[in-house]
Amino acid sequence: MAATEGATATAEAVEASGAPAPDAPSDFGEPTVIADGLHVVYRVRGAAGRSGGGGPAALLRALARRKGGGGAREVHAVKGVSFVARRGEAIGVIGSNGSGKSTLLRAVAGLIPPERGKVYTNGQPSLLGVNAALMNELPGERNVVLGCLAMGMTPAEVRERYDDIVDFSGINDKGDFISLPMRTYSSGMAARLRFAIAAARDHDVLLIDEALATGDRAFRKRSEKRIKELREKAGTVFLVSHSNKTIRDTCDRALWMERGELIMDGTAAEVVDAYEEANGGD
Ligand SMILES: Nc1ncnc2c1ncn2[C@@H]1O[C@H](COP(=O)(O)OP(=O)(O)OP(=O)(O)O)[C@@H](O)[C@H]1O
């Protein structure tokens, strides 16, 4: 297992470190991700501090402070989150806007260092976000090739998978859009293409941030099927979504985040039920 601080730790080392092993369903495989008391803090440089009141005078004072450099404001986005994810699990991450879901995924992917606590991962996590980088000026077809090569596929594998990826994305359903630059795509089309590229390979840990929400019904069905296949190939899938139905249909377990804290970890059905009840039905 690799720990995010760049150090490497084996599963035995995790045990030896005294990392708690929070409850997890035992009928799944070995651990792929362990979050142990994870805290993530963003520091926003040049942010105006909290002003004591409104009005032009307060605004001028705030601007003067910013000119002088301003202080760094801290946003404590993830607060002491612990869980163990195992091979074969599909884990939904739910919670209201700004509750820390995307931040949690970015920390698991190793893109943000923990402020405190640790994330151990067994295998390479791949984060598929709405903002995942594809080249806007290049046509979709070039992005498919580059994206696949970047994931470690050989040119022969890319050639073999190319048609399936384009079909899966549905980009060409209504004409030859795959030869147009990505910047001409709607956000939904771009998200579908990103998912189709990422889903072309098996992943140890696949982290999906809302990409499925942008697709139509047929695309969602294809995606749900592919997520099931990825799990069957012994990977772990994390899925951030505001669609409770997608979480119920796709995941067997769910984590509910609020204000940076993990407030519930259980089966997808029981966590989504509790979430809906707290939000007055959905
Ligand atoms: N790059 C950043 N710099 C500073 N603060 C950030 C940054 N990204 C997120 N935050 C803050 O961290 C907190 C958690 O944000 P995050 O995006 O993880 O929430 P989320 O649950 O994914 O939200 P949503 O459902 O709206 O996408 C929020 O208060 C947000 O303002």
Can you offer a commentary on this structure?
With 282 residues, the chain is α/β, with parallel strands linked by helices. The chain has helices at 11-16, 55-67, 101-108, 140-150, 155-169, 187-199, 217-232, 244-250, 268-278, and strands at residues 2-3, 31-47, 71-86, 90-94, 116-121, 125-129, 205-209, 236-240, 253-258, 261-267. The strands form 2 sheets. The chain has a 6-stranded mixed β-sheet, sandwiched between helices. A 4-stranded antiparallel β-sheet has the order 1-5-2-3. A hairpin with a 2-residue loop joins strand 9 (253-258) and strand 10 (261-267). 39% of the residues are buried.
At a glance:
This is ABC transporter ATP-binding protein. This protein is 35% helix and 26% strand.
Which range best describes the helical content: under 10%, 10-25%, 25-40%, 40-55%, 55-70% or over 70%? Answer: 25-40%
Mean pLDDT: 82
Ligand roster: adenosine-5'-triphosphate
Q: How do the strands line up in the largest sheet?
A: 6-7-8-4-9-10
Q: How does the major sheet shape up?
A: 6 strands, mixed
Percent strand: 25-35%
Count of helical stretches: 9
Distance between the termini: 39 Å
Instruction: Give a count of the beta strands, DSSP E runs of length 2 or more.
Output: 10
| N-to-C SSE string, H for helix and E for strand | EHEHEEHEEHHHEHEHEEH
Second rung of CATH, namely the architecture = 3-Layer(aba) Sandwich
Keywords: ATP-binding, Nucleotide-binding, Transport
Region (Disordered): 1-30
GO molecular function: ATP binding
Domain ABC transporter: 60-278
